[in-house]
Amino acid sequence: MYGNGAPETNRTSDLPLRRGLLYPLSYRGAGWNDSGLCKARYVLQQERCDRFLTHGPGPRRRGRITRVIPWLRNDSPFPPIDSALSEPNGLLAAGGELSANRLLAAYRRGIFPWYAEGQPVLWWSPDPRMVLFVNEFRITRSLGKVLRSERFEIRVDTAFRAVIEACARAPRSGQVGTWITPAVIDAYTALHEGGNAHSVETWRGGHLVGGLYGVSIGRMFFGESMFAQETDASKVALAHLVDRMRRADCPLIDCQQQTAHLATLGARPISRVGFAERLARLVNCAGPEAVWVVTPPSSVLV
Fold it and tell me: Domains (ranges, CATH) in the chain?
């Protein structure tokens, strides 16, 4: 969730996403093995010809190292998150549908989708996991000044689809294309219509100029992406999200991937085990509706 600068977004800090390419990874198709388990095969391109493979007593020779992850049907259970690959960090499974119910089942287990156009749905659970404890959020002097000025109008859930579409269009350094495909937009909009995805929006002069969206389950918020068309517009949205979560006794925001920008705001990595333990408690708590009630912009500083 959430990168650096304007626009600000997630999952792009160190990994350029190009059309059909996610990480140094290529899709090799899927097939059924003797036990009837369908698996997707991926080849880590950076390992190609960089390691030796031993084949029996013969001489070692260079070759490819193939990692195997489960290929999921629409009704397949997700594998345990501790079975995710270490490289690419957190790649857990592929395949299956991107429905609202499937997304909820994934987030409850600490799993999220991330894939490029033309790829199957890829499911991830990285270790460590970047999170923001709301009590550790840092409001810098400059951000505090912006919040006190009430330069932006804050709205909640008034333009969810517009926010996610703006995140998809936002240009990013070193990236062509976006993981926020039409299928992703439709799936998260369905989540929003069901009350499990929300947007915090910054408006100025009647125009949407920044915001963020994510998934809410119980007392947990899973940040997905944010954008800013004016300086600090997305930071203001994040500050308001944090304030709402804190007031409603929702202690944790999942940021998914590590970024230097998030670290400056107080986010930090924790182990996947530690994240899963907190997640299991928080998603099974009743979620307070007060989180999504509009409050004055300057109330964040109270």
Answer: 25-126 (3.30.70.3550), 130-301 (3.40.630.70)
